[in-house]
Specification:
Elements lengths: L3 H7 L1 H9 L1 H4 L4 H16 L1 H8 L12 H14 L1 H8 L11 H14 L1 H9 L1 H4 L4 H7 L2 H7 L3 H6 L5 E9 L3 E9 L6 H17 L7 E6 L9 E3 L4 E3 L10 H15 L8 H20 L16 H7 L10 H14 L4 H21 L7 H7 L6 H9 L17 E2 L4 E9 L9 E3 L7 E9 L6 E11 L4 E11 L5 E8 L10 E9 L2 E11 L1
Amino acid sequence: MQNARALEQRNLPAARAIRSLPWIDDGIDDSEQEAAESLVYLAATQDELFDDLSEKPWIDVSDISRGAPTIVALSYLAEEDPEAAQRLLNMPFLDTLEPADPLAVESLSYLAFRDMPVFRRVMRHPSVLDGIDDAEARVIALLEGAAQVDPSLVGVLLDPSRTHTEQRTINLPLSGPVTLAITRTSPGAARSMDLLEEAVRTTETVIDRPFPAEYVALLFENAVPGYFSGIHNGLNLTIIPDYDVDDGSYEAATAGRVIAHEVAHYYWRHSEPWLDEGAAEFTAAMVEHIRTGAPLEPVNYPCPSSATISQLERQGLQEYDAGYACNYAIGERLFLDLDRSPGRSPFLQGFRRLYDIVSDVGISQESQLAGIGELRQAFAGTAEASAINRWYTGQGTGSTYGPDSRPVVAELPEVNGWINRAYISLEEEGEPVKSFAAAEAGDWVWLTLDYSHDYAGPPTELTFEVVEYYQDGFPYRRDTLTIEASRLYSGGVQLLSVGPGPGQGWATGRHWIYVLHEGRKVAQAEFEVTS
């Protein structure tokens, strides 16, 4: 260890005390290295803090996995504010380590490093001044992430009358007990905890590796940056409260996938954004596929600015750039394409091997982000190599998945009717277009269905599925619309907005819109978007 010899010369009893700890005496592995270095630092610079830390029962153990992040965080905090670190160590919640306690210390350590005024405000708060207990530690674990986006939430979260934490402990096949905690500042949906449990359980099954955390903290609050629905900040998950509902809305329908995506980031971190976000999106798609039977297909609109990963990397987009969403779009398509290449079993072997590789990179080389090299290593010698090349450089075998080539059967026998016309227009009830420039499109582009019928029965509705499909071989959105047939009318017009929607750019190339009724293709509109 660095500085070990210097410590032996300066404080031999402390050096011997460190050497005698069971988790050090049996050899230091990669996961213990930083904690061991932190102990040496504290022994050399903070005598009283080191002495008090040495008396904690959770440090004199063979397995330091729970204590290691606490030791490291205390050493960082001692660099910023030694007095606060000493106060914190002597609070009740650190007498024994519960699953949330290390995260609380890390949260305060990060706060001290990034925003000392907020940190000092926390340390002066009445709930902290009288000593943090285990219940308060669960809330303090959320502070650093929330304060980065909205510092005013610090006082709200620390007020026990304004927060409620729901907790459940589950037992996973590979990792054993894992505690799930949801904190809210307003009422939410009872099913959210079930969705969280389902995501954690199924994600461990998909990756087939022990879940990398024993405490999963989810905060439903508007403390999410930019246009994101949620964020995994390393210590906890934050998701906007719109998804903490069970009311039949779009947000309720997609809540499971949003939660599963953030849970997946416990595995997929330390890599290039397209790899982390793509793998998390694929994992979330698998979770929802297993839970609901939802199809495995993209949920992100095709990237309007890049067709390949190499183009995306050259752009150097930052998290708050509007085009950053392309990491999700291209990344998820890469993994979905790899999954459907030769069959799921070989793919999952490579996918799990990729996790092993990128997690090793994250532990040993924090400054290096895993990327295309690690992806190719994980899938070396498999049929997926061509798909990797296609998505990374645009070279390699083209996708074998194309548009729906079935003929249109426009009849609607249920109402003695048919679809007369289906077309795209740039304005509501506008003229049909077969091609348009991306810059020409306004907030919405419209699909128009012109239908007729000769129906004499009681009023009835027909429900259609509308599928939007892109030239990359993937559908990217599914929607429904209904038409009503009545003997008082002989037909009508139905409109539906399609494409990326307001604030997003169109992906150039060929697009198809399919209208399906009970599996039959009753209408189709094909068009091209130019640059």
